[in-house]
Write a structure and sequence with these properties.
15% strand; 8-stranded parallel beta barrel; globular; 8 strands; alpha/beta; TIM Barrel; 246 residues; 12 helices
Length: 246
């Protein structure tokens, strides 16, 4: 049974549905991010802070959002020697973030799981970036393999190491669900509402397709951040999620 199916068997509150949309605060300053969060209002409950904002004061913003009752996904994609990753994950756990990403290398995943021990922080393993396709993997020296096969291998390793969830393209979510089982999270970036510009993403789907393929959470940045009315854009995606049959 997929995550989407298991979620559909129980009543889902409006808040729970909103939590399935993670809004990427991919903006250059804390001031712009605060203004965006204010414009989105109650339509947004879960925010992602990545490199761009994190290194521009985003960690303090993360604390503010958590204090306001919002959930925060720190998309830092940690990958370093084991001790460094473990201590980094421990610091993020103390901050009160909900999700933290690490690259899906066994030593890195093992260290992150150790670092978050005893906390509510969820470690998400990034398998293959959604901006990569098979040609990019060949260029990086991963041949002979495909993006789908590398995602599957890394998902199996993450499962065996006790990682809480997987970040992968929605196009791989169904296969990943079969590998990691029904209880682990699948978080999918590369989500674009129908008619949106794909940008630099190469393996994209619409919000409804992502849910049908088994994603627990959808990460959406540019279609909301760059919308004339970010709140309306977020509400439209939440509505699409709520109307998608499992």
């Amino acid at each position: 049974m997929s995550a989407a199916m298991s979620l559909s068997t129980n009543p889902v509150s409006e808040g729970d549905i909103r939590d399935r949309l993670i809004i990427g605060l991919d903006v250059p300053s804390v001031e712009e991010a605060r203004a965006l969060v204010g414009r989105i209002g109650e339509a947004g409950t879960f925010y992602k802070i990545g490199y761009q904002l994190a290194y521009a004061g985003g960690f303090e913003l993360a604390r503010e959002l958590i204090d306001q009752g919002k959930k925060v996904f720190l998309d830092l994609k940690l990958h370093d020697i084991g001790n460094t990753v473990e201590e980094g994950a421990r610091s993020v756990a103390r901050l009160g973030a909900t999700f933290l990403t690490v690259h899906a290398y066994p030593q890195t995943m093992r260290a992150a799981v150790a670092g978050k021990a005893g906390s509510s922080l969820k470690i998400l393993a990034v398998t293959v970036l959604t901006s990569y396709d098979d040609n990019d993997l060949i260029e990086a020296g991963y041949a002979p393999t495909t993006a789908a096969d590398l995602v599957a291998r890394r998902a199996g390793q993450a499962r065996d190491l006790g990682v809480d969830g997987i970040v992968c393209a929605a196009t791989e979510a169904e296969r990943v669900r079969g590998i990691v089982g029904p209880d682990r999270l699948i978080v999918t970036p590369g989500i674009r509402p129908a008619g949106s510009d794909a940008g630099d993403q190469k393996r994209i789907v619409t919000p409804s397709e992502g849910i049908r393929l088994g994603a627990n959470h959808l990460v959406v940045a540019r279609p909301i951040v760059r919308a004339a009315d970010p709140k309306a854009a977020a509400e439209a995606i939440v509505r699409e999620i709520s109307q998608t049959p499992a």
